[in-house]
UniProtKB/TrEMBL annotation:
Pfam families: Cupin_8 (PF13621). Belongs to the JARID1 histone demethylase family. It comes from the Eukaryota. SUPFAM superfamilies: Clavaminate synthase-like. Residues 43-92 form the Cupin-like domain. This is Cupin-like domain-containing protein. InterPro entries: Cupin_8. It comes from Mantoniella antarctica.
Length: 109
């Protein structure tokens, strides 16, 4: 990653320098988060190795088998909730109220 080499220590040093440059304090007890696929860890192991120790963990592939990941498409929302009024607020102008089908249609245009 990054393509320059130097390893984790160089990356950590660069990150600390960047934080210090912005005035964000660097924590000497900071721990790099491990990364695991959700299928590679049991709930018991997660509890024992990470939760009880307060250790960070990045879980990947969490929604791979979640039905909503494939079910919730723009067509789904337009078809099932098309008449539902939604409020669109981008903080740059007046709030817009329009039906879900119209809102979703804006993404397809």
């Amino acid at each position: 990653m990054g393509g320059r080499g130097g390893g984790a220590a160089a990356t950590e040093a660069t990150g600390v320098a960047a934080m210090e440059a912005t005035g964000v304090p660097a924590f000497s007890n900071a721990v790099a988060a491990e990364k695991k696929s959700v299928g590679d860890i049991t709930p018991e192991s997660f509890e024992r190795r990470y939760v009880t120790r307060g250790m960070p963990l990045v879980l990947t592939d969490v929604i791979a088998e979640w039905p909503a990941a494939s079910k919730w498409t723009l067509d789904y929302f337009a078809g099932v909730h098309g008449g539902l009024e939604v409020v669109v607020d981008d903080s740059t102008r007046e709030k817009l109220r329009l039906p879900m089908a119209e809102y979703v249609g804006n993404f397809e245009a």
